[in-house]
Amino acid sequence: MKSRFSEPHINRYPKAWQVVAATLAGVGIGLTAMHFLPAKTGKSLARQTVSGKHSQSKTASTNPLEAVNLWPKLDSRMNVLLMGVDSNGRDTERFNGCRSDTIILASLDPETKKVSLISIPRDSRVRINSPNGKHTVEKINAAHALGGPELTVQTVSEDFGVPIDHYMVIDVQGLKQLFEALGPVEVMVEKPMHYRDRAGRLNIALEPGLNKLDATRLEEYVRFRHDPRGDIGRIERQQWFLRQVKKKLEEPQVLLKLPELCKLAGEYVRTDLEPTDMLKLAAFCKDLKTNQIQTATLPGEPVTINGGSYWVPTPDTSALVLHRMAGAPLSVSVIATNTGAHIHAVHNSDMTSDLNDQSSVSYAAYSNDLVNSECAQAAGTKPPSVVVKYPKGCEETARNLEGRLKEKGYNVRWIQKADLAECQHELLVQTSFRADDQLTLAVKQAIPELEAYPVNVSPEPRSSSDFVIVVTPGSKIIGPTAKETEEADLPQKKEDAHGA
Questions:
Q1: Domains of the chain (ranges plus CATH)?
Q2: Dihedral pair phi/psi, residue 371, rounded to 5°
Q3: From the first residue on, what is the mean pLDDT of each consecutive set of 10 residues in the chain (500 residues)?
């Protein structure tokens, strides 16, 4: 596949952090290519500028900058599939025959002004339409090895019912070079990370807390997965890395490093994005704040099948996440048919008869009605419910938040003490089918201190609460006044007295 970045970089650069910020999703798995526009784009931009000046002389404008705007506008949602691959050896050709061990669906929505990042676990058990015309059942990371990024895009689109506009592939061998070019990055390490992998040439020894990590340590942070949560824990760290690296990308000196980054992109990035598409993404993301980036991991559970470890997506919750975050049609039956523990390989011609086989799983049990009824049942008149999660030593912060939420009419189910490793990042988690963006906005408006909290989407049927709010040792939540606390507790006291 020919690289779209083989031409020299342009002379006219937008602000460095704006261009790199447009690639936040890609940075999480290595590097994306929006920073690195070919020379012909620079010439076309120059022509647009001249043309803009000419049109300005002919037609009066209330804003003279409108005629010379170099940023094309992203008018509609764009879904980009991001893949991180590793080479198969020193003498193998880059990008060929290798598995995509990181898969992230990035959805940029100009209507809501948000970026959604949905991580698809590499062990997800799916049906792949292999090049020989048969449907084979494999882990989803095998699609890239069988047919490159195009087959991965086709597999994700068909098996999950989600439209995908473009793809971007990053060779993770370029991670260290990228980090060396950017310089040390301040990262919150959630817990002790110790692991030695001779084959992977990793000797990870990271301690918890806020650390300035050099290139070697950054690579270790994003690749570490040797804990009880395995690949799911690694996915969460990648998502946090996306948010934390943004501060680094805003540093002015990154501009001076663009030529070096251009060279890296030509070697380590492949994409079908056209230069105009890249500029649209850069324009959309240039003013993006970290709390406008929503994350999710495709819901499911780990399962062992015939000795192999798989991630089996949950059809209803997966469909809801893709519908809300990526604009996909609600497709519960599609996901149930093409993923999970019960699917098996079939010829295309045998697909219909196989699915009607009485010995197969009953896919009719999975439909959009299940999700719609759950959402309708959850959207009752009861006040939204919240669980507050806090680390040792932050009891006062948790109590302050509890009091403020009760003051605003929220039902605080309980406050939960957790390990510090689970509370290193402030976070607002949507945990029920009821908890959508509108309800999340209401929570943030009720408690202004929560405005900057990033959002994670993790719905569960019949969840015990609508939200989980995670506070950290650095969280600042002011408590209600004594009078407000008494007024907030009065309804509960009356209810308790009535019950007695």
A1: 16-57+71-296 (3.40.630.190), 385-499 (3.30.70.2390)
A2: -70, -45
A3: 35 36 39 35 36 40 44 89 76 73 92 92 92 83 93 96 94 78 87 79 85 87 75 77 72 74 78 85 79 91 92 94 95 92 62 40 66 74 92 96 96 95 94 93 96 94 93 94 56 53
